[in-house]
Amino acid sequence: MTSDDDDVRALAATARSVLSENDVSQWFHQRADLTYRTIENLTISKADAFQSLFTGSLLRKARFQEVIFSRSDLDGIRAERCEFSDCDFSLCDIRSSHFTKCAFINCKLSDCYVDACEFVEYELAKCSFQNSSVTHSIFSNTKLDKCELGRSTQLHNRYYDCTIEQTTLGDCTFLYAIFRDCTLVNVILNAESVGAILGLTRKQVSESPSIYLGEVQGRLSPADDVAKLFMAEYQKRRWYLGELVLNLNFGSSSIIEALEGILQTHPVELPKWVSLSQRNSNSWLRSSKSLLLKADCHSLRL
Questions:
Q1: Is the pTM of this model over 0.85?
Q2: Which domain holds residue 277?
Q3: Residue 279: how many other CB atoms lie within 10 Å
């Protein structure tokens, strides 16, 4: 075995070892390769890790203050009990990563791509997600406080036991989300998104101002029937899926009843496999209802 092979093996071991306090200045710099490194029990301040690689790294009990992560890859990382304050994550690629008991305070996450991540017992305070894309992610026991989501895309995310405070969900694309046992405090909703968030309660919709065509509409009065108002508007606009979700959110019907009601009362293009005799009766609906329910439940990840 040559000395070159030994050098390569030694370099690989060093590149994947635990980062010590003395190593920070050597490894934490622009365009650094921190792949599979462990950063534990460290405080890193005012460092510039612009366009660096953190793929597969483990961050544990670390504090990052005024650190620049801009344009870095943070895919497949695991962060535990970390605090990020006044950090810049703009233009970062964050995919398939897991954050547990972490806090992001006054951080910039603009123009980020976040996909298939999980956030557990997580806190976001005064952070900006402008123009970012956050998709297919799970937020559990998470708190979002005074965050800016303007012009961002938030799609197919799930929120379990989360608290959202003083945040506008109306100046962004916030669709196809699931809320379960969530608390909303001083939150502004997009009127068009109410029917695309499964789990919103009648009380939450009534107490939250809504934005419609860019203008804040204000809270509904106690005398208003929120279900009736939204249902009428959704029927008028033929937003049938949204109408179905409203029925579920407001407890107007079960999943089966909501699906059956939509399919019976609104014209739909029948599948080619439906025969002429079936088209003239409701037998096709009965035979395919269970399939439709399974597909719908799978897509909503109930």
A1: no
A2: 253-302
A3: 10
